[in-house]
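Session log. Operator J.P. requested a structure for one protein chain; no other inputs attached. Running the standard single-chain path with token output.
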Amino acid sequence: MRPLYGSRLSMTVATAALFLAFFSPLASAAQKVPIHFESYHGYTATADYLKTVAKAYSGITDLLEIGKSTMGRPIYVLVVSNQKNGATHGNEYTGTEVCLYIIDKLVSGYGEDETVTRMVDKNTFYICPVINPDGVFNSVERGIPQRANSMNRDEDGDGKINEDGPDDLDGDGHITFFRHRDPEGMYIMDDKDPRLMIRLKQDQQTDRPRYSVVPEDRDNDGDGKRGEDPEAGIDLNRNFPEGWFTEDGFSGGTGDYPTSAPETHAVAEFFSNHRNILMGQFYHTSGGFTFRPMGTAPHSTMNPLDVAVFDFVMGKKYLEIIGEDVPEAWEKPQLLNQFKGKLKETNANTYAQQRGYALPRGWRVSYDEDRDRRYSYGMATDWAYKQYGIYSITTELWNPFKDIPGLPEIKGASDSTERALLAYQDAEYGGKLFRAWKPFKHPDLGEGEIGGWLPQHRVNNALPGKPLVEVCDKHWRFELFRAELLPDITITKADTRLLSTTAGSGKATVSTSGDTVTIKKGKSGNSVKIIEVTAVIENRGKLATHIAEGAQLSCLREDVVWLLGDPEKVRFLQGTPYQILGVLDGTLTIPGVGGQRAAAPPDQAQSRMMMFYPAAPMGFRRGPSYRPTEVKEGGAGREVKWVIAVEGTTPLKIVVSSQKGGTAVLDLKVR
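Structure written below.
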């Protein structure tokens, strides 16, 4: 799963990891823990690196174990803050490498780079490089590509668990492929490079010899089948709660129920316990583009303000970084109504017509807008956005024709990618990523040849060395950009004004008539001051403290400000101890929308307020009559006031609490 940032941002990642190469551009004097990308780290080296980093940078990191995989491997989250998740699919480990790259940039840049230092000082980054430890371990360390997690199941009903998976038939330490002549086979040799096997289309005829191509494997249990009982389990990115059920109430996602897998359960529990997360990134590998919500439901289920933040702000920057054209509507949002009119004449996609633009290749939704149907069920990105109010995205990291400059792309040929990559690895890696075919007698299939791509490097992961570093650096720059969008709650002004000194606090009362406040002093006793406290709270960050409707979600709340003091010596005369600020907008003008925030329906607002009522403070009765003061005029700033009776020189503290915007604290001294 994606990178995460908390306290305001959180980055999650989803993918996997591999190994091999010769490029080490990251080594620098600032690194206490050098890291290279000459090979894929896999699960074991990743876990070792996280432990070493946490020890070397103990002042700004904390290593958490948030759960264990089916096979008992720990799932780690590295917290980077002065106060990001990783591989969801086991055979997509480029995301793990991007997470490690981001970790290195954060910890080695702290104190050295002004921007990085500011981000780490103000925010919390939660980074989980490997969400699927078993899938990554099998894919990288064992060389068995495994997209799914691992499960202990008897898939062939013979009373044995996971006993018939892939086998290293020739004992060379790699599980590649076995090809053999087969009149019913669906492959032929490439006429330009006989090392490559070209898959035929269904019902395609050919006069050339046909082959079958299968992974190295044998019938381990004598039932006449090969590979029918492997360790692989379910696709974790279909096991999240959002959109897991079909429209008629049956299971649509994977697993027995949402979060039935221990890995997704660990992630869900972590998010439930860290509601400060505002940004989420789930890394996958193939395609070189980013999915933003939605995939389980249509575009119309999103608030237009969120759509504008995703597309006009984040999407525009992402396309600039990966070098793709930005839609004209994103460059000229003031003409959006004109673009909507044109699209009604030129594009049958009704969702594109509603937006005023068709989504580009590099920034898209997974929902099939042309056929108006969902992509799948139980997807992590939709879950994080819909249930936790997170700007969550899923990035498919690797596109060799974009990420390897000069790589020849043969248009119209389905085998062009593999042919081009094979030539590239011949030239740049000395042919080490591909095993030459050699004769071999298969114990079940007879004569044939073993060879092909080493499974860790076959097409769908960034090649190690320079290509991998280029991919990592692009996405580090994008995540740094997103971190700089985060809200930044600050108490910009706080004043105290002495209104009166009275001889008794026990019977001090206050009454108001319009703007007039009348204070009646009590009997003689300890010296008590009547003080007016005024504070100005601002969000100096670019984005608001919630997504458009985030504060209406049952697990979230609006921003609040507290005035704290010794409850035995402070009595609130005007203004409740905590006041509700609503949602503080950011400083960035969001293109393409009016920027109006949706208000919670009255019944939701009331139930939410009751949920967050604290115990009644001194001088207030418990029960429904106690309602906190609300200061929700909108915008990025609020002014709040209290009138209090203070005994002696009791210290006071103003605390602003925003779930996703952070916490600001200011001490006041009563003199």
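Operator note: Residues 1-27, 84-90, 598-625 have pLDDT under 50 and may be disordered.
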